Amino acid sequence: MQVFLSQLTLGLVNGSFYAMLSLGLAVIFGLLGIVNFAHGALYMLGAYVAWIGMDKLGINYWAALLVAPIVIGALGVAIERLFLRHLYKIDPIYGLLLTFGLALIAEGILRYSFGVSGQSYDKPELLAGSTDLGFMVLPNYRAWVVVASLTICLGTWFLIERTSLGATLRAGTENPALVQAFGINVPLMVTLTYAGGAALAAIAGVLAAPIIQVTPLMGSSLIIVVFAVVVIGGMGSILGSIITGLALGLVEGLTKVFYPEASSIVVFVIMAIVLMVRPAGLFGKEA
Predict the structure, then answer these.
(1) pLDDT tens, the chain, 287 aa long
(2) 206 domain residue, yes or no
(3) Rounded to whole angstroms, how far apart are CA atoms 131 and 265?
(4) Residue 285: inside a domain, yes or no?
(5) Which of 100, 137, 204, 212 is the most exposed place for a label (fewest CB within 10 A)?
């Protein structure tokens, strides 16, 4: 039972990362229709902004949580204005290929600059230590990751689904000509939407930096699983991405208890089953 509860708790931590990353993907696809394969690279760049800020500029963890999304969000603005806005009216495969190429470029530049060996990032002193839960000793930082991820995910969902700003964003992507007739700058709104998705990836990168090694490969090793999470939840479904990310993290943790050999593929097995039963995903809308 102790092993079971321990893996369940660790699965919740992993599920928090899945939810954060799949949330950014769902926002970009749901509002812009872009399959953003550069999302893993943006996650990795967010972690590197935090590490470079600490190593070179003395920027602490709490400041990095603000600086990294601003820097990567600005990069998202450049990507959308220079590249993606030319692809909205053509086949989505071109957007996927472009963002995949951008991800390879970012990974290659950082591999050349810093090598492939991982860089460590210190936990903030405020979150050092651990808490004895009875069945396991939970590091305080991992508990913080779960709380921070859930807060950001639910806040983003509320902003897009339950506020007038979110309604304007959805209307601007569904009928841009009509919304622009009311005096709203739709191109700027689209740019800021992509920047917001990039900023979410950057926050996830900063949250992950003290737990895993910061390497150029950290995004590419995770993005395939995150895409599977988004497909299972339903492409473009923000709430579906959050719930599915958390649930699959728990399932992955439990699989490590009962059948460890299958823990690395259980997400993809579930994706295959869901696609056969409900191709639009668990929370997606049928075309």
Answers:
(1) 677 777 778 888 889 889 988 888 888 887 788 889 999 999 999 999 999 999 989 999 999 999 999 999 999 999 999 999 888 878 888 888 999 999 999 999 999 999 888 899 999 999 988 888 777 778 899 999 999 999 999 999 999 888 988 888 888 777 777 888 888 888 888 898 899 999 999 999 999 999 988 999 999 878 888 999 999 998 878 888 999 999 999 998 888 888 888 888 999 999 999 999 998 888 877 65
(2) yes
(3) 31
(4) no
(5) 137
CATH number of the domain enclosing 162: 1.10.3470
Domain contains 241? yes
Q: How many domains does the chain have?
A: 1
Q: Taking CA 176 as the corner, what is the angle to CA 183 and CA 160, rounded to the nearest 5 degrees? A: 90
